[in-house]
Amino acid sequence: EAEAAAPPAASDEPVPAVLDFDRLLLGRSEEREFTISNTSFVPVVWRLDLAELDECPEFQVKPTEGVLPVGGSAIVTCYFNTIDEQVREPNLHIDFSDAENEGLAVATRVQRESVAIKAEAYQIKYVNFEGDETGCLDFGSQRVGATDRQEMVLANNGKYPVEFGFVVRKAATRDLFTVEPAEGVIEPGDKATIGVTFCSTREVLLKDNKDIRCTISEPHEGVCAGKFETFDVSASVKSSWSMFRLQPARGVTFGAVKFNEEPRKRRFDIKNEGQFDFAFTVTGADGDADATAAIVAHT
To answer: Are 40 and 72 in contact (CB under 8 A)?
Structure first.
């Protein structure tokens, strides 16, 4: 049989596989993946039934068919490109059979699994978000402990002043991002430049993370008249430690040396196995103030 990968079930009831794109601003795109695995003892042929996506031009799915050997798997990618403001919840179906059933011609030997898709395309009606054309703050690759700042712009295209406020929703990422200013008021026709600073003390890998949320509200006589829209700011970043390898790992050995014998030379290698350049000095066990200052100057 073939099966679509799904979250582990808390009971014996099977949990349907779901591709959840959440909410995405108009003009942006994201992708999600799921895995089709052959857990049977014979090769399996599979094909996607995308009939429900015929009326959904926002979605593209690749690949759409294939053959899986015993124990094999295939990764299927679904692309969501926002076109119109609406909610989409189609299903795609995976038809599969033993590989001898070419073209899935014998219907009685064909089995089916389904994957649900949930996606919403929306637009901000009162404030225009101006940022990277991908709609994502991309911090790229960073050293652990390094600081990087990206900027975005909020523009008030309405008739009245609006208040904005940013929060980082989850504790796991709250210590990674700092938003400045985190709140404020934008007058009609004005813009506000928002800086988002990333700094981590651990290795982190985030792709299209949506923990940064902005709330737009309309002030009225000094009191917030009520929240009328929110949107998430996507952020991608990878932070890594600098890594190196020292060879030989057990140090260098000079053996027995006679008094006044010619000096013996031994060699050790330092290899950079990380993503970044790093500075180093070689000192005695007690260290060296000048060497330490040189290292600090390069960081």
So the answer is: no
pLDDT digits (tens, 9 = 90+) for 54-101: 999 999 999 999 999 999 999 999 999 988 888 999 999 999 999 999
Q: How many residues does the chain have?
A: 299
Compute the distance between CA of residue 137 and CA of residue 233 in angstroms, rounded to an integer: 8
Distance in angstroms (rounded) separating the CA atoms of residues 243 and 276:
9
Strands 111-122, 91-98: pairing is antiparallel
Q: Among 255, 7, 275, 288, which residue's Cα sits nearest to residue 146?
A: 275
**Alpha carbon distances (Å) from 24 to 166, 179, 258:** 17, 21, 75
Measure the CA–CA gap between 21 and 42, rounded to whole angstroms: 34
This model's pTM is above 0.85: no
254-to-41, 137, 226, 249 alpha-carbon distances in Å: 59, 54, 77, 15
pLDDT value of position 295: 75
Average pLDDT, the chain: 85
Q: CA–CA separation, 93 vs 47, rounded Å?
A: 8
